[in-house]
Amino acid sequence: MNTDASGQGAASVAGHVADADQPVTGEAPRTLLQVRNLRTIFRHDHGSLTAVDGVSFDVRRGETLAIVGESGSGKSITAMSLLRLIPSPPGEIVDGEVEFDGRDLLELSDEEIRQIRGNEIAMIFQEPMTSLNPVLNIARQIGEPMEIHSRRDRDSIWKRCVDLLRQVRIPDPERRLKAYPHQFSGGMRQRAMIAMGLACEPKLIIADEPTTALDVTVQAQILELLKDLTRDHHSSMILITHDLGVVARYADRINVMYAGRIVERGTSDEIFNHPRHPYTLGLMESVPRLNDSDGTRLRPIPGQPPDLSNLPRGCPFHPRCRFAMDKCREAEPPLEQLSEEHWKACWVDLDDKH
Predict the structure, then answer these.
(1) What is the pLDDT of residues 167-208, one digit of tens each?
(2) pLDDT by residue (tens digit) across 16-28?
(3) Do 238 and 267 share a domain, yes or no?
(4) Among 223, 229, 271, 295, which residue's CB has the most CB atoms within a 10 Å radius?
(5) How far apart are CA 295 and CA 301, in angstroms?
(6) Is residue 61 one of the residues assigned to a domain?
């Protein structure tokens, strides 16, 4: 159906473009992942709700794609659907195609998808303390993917674990490998999770809110580390976050999600310099700016994300949108193409509002 969004920028939305990595020019790289019309529902006693509603996007080889939105927008469920990690019941992927490197992941057997998880596609979760096993040392946990997916012997796996801890910049790796998760700080646990994800040199890394529980300084270090490692390993990455300011510097393209749908997508230059959906604009206005010389104050988005089991008629965002028109309350806008890489699902022309 479509492509997606690419991004770059600075940790602050203001002035991000000057610091951004430049987008890839020339011939477009080959597509690694194609998602088409993905729909995931959750059944409950009174019916069902659609958590991912017709989502389509691509991930190119070697790029970082950000998926941005508030909690409940469908970001993490989209990522888990790609790897068929949705608990069933109550969840079910009811439609769509997820073509990864020429194979539809939704059509593979359970054994075939297990060979891809942690091997060709790795997922880094947002809470390493709950993702790491507290009774196994770090070496055992980083080495496990290699034990499952490779034929390395024990000595080779140990050397690889030492090298991985060095790559994620954990000092004294031989000693640290013998430690347990509770002996690591939050930042070190997240680095260990990244090392685990890189163990089998995956083609795609999915980082789900990888810096949520970390302070600002460590957050920046982890994001820089992920960007460097994906470049060094020639991996693609899907970076999931609720914070547009986080992705400004690190993503090549951006998908903005709301109520289980992509409402805007484009290159980071397009998203940050020329947002075309009021929700995207609201997310940007909610990011603190380092340079506030014009006296601009934060403008939070009013209200709460909608109940997915009882969405409003028309555009799901219209109850919170300061630009809403009568048409917004009556009909849901389609995702329309504005330029080669820029798409939006909105009846409002923000250019007329400025």
Answers:
(1) 888 999 999 999 999 999 888 898 898 888 888 889 999 999
(2) 433 434 444 445 4
(3) yes
(4) 271
(5) 19
(6) yes
**Cα 229 from Cα 72, distance rounded (Å):** 29
Q: Are residues 78 and 210 in the same domain?
A: yes
Which alpha helices (DSSP H) does 52-185 contain, by range? 75-82, 110-116, 128-131, 138-149, 154-167, 173-176
Among candidates 201, 203, 176, which has minimal Cα distance to 188?
A: 176
H or E element in which residue 191 lies = helix 186-198
Contact 145, 201 (CB under 8 A): no
Whether residue 113 is found in the same domain as residue 259 = yes
In a domain, 266, yes or no: yes
100 pLDDT above the threshold of 50: yes
Domain boundary among 174, 199, 224: 199
Task: For residue 244, give the nearest of 279, 204, 207, 293 by alpha carbon.
Answer: 279
Query: What's the CA gap between 207 and 67, in Å, rounded?
Result: 10
Contacts of 287 (CB under 8 A, 6+ apart): 12, 13, 243, 244, 245
24: CATH: 3.40.50.300
CA geometry: angle 327, 337, 320, nearest 5 deg = 40
Q: Would you state the structure tokens that stand for residue 230, as one six-digit string?
A: 């994906």
Domain that holds residue 213: 16-120+202-353
183 & 214 share domain: no
Greatest extent of the chain over all pairs of C-alpha atoms, in Å? 67
Cα distance between residue 118 and residue 122, in whole Å: 4
Same domain for 340 and 233: yes
In the chain, how many domains are there? 2
**CB 17 within 8 Å of CB 273:** yes
Smallest Cα–Cα separation from 132: which of 176, 181, 173?
181
pTM reported for the whole predicted model: 0.84
Cβ neighbours, 10 Å, residue 41: 22
Residue 65 to residues 208, 235, 251: CA-CA distances in angstroms?
A: 12, 12, 6
CB 73 within 8 A of CB 120: no
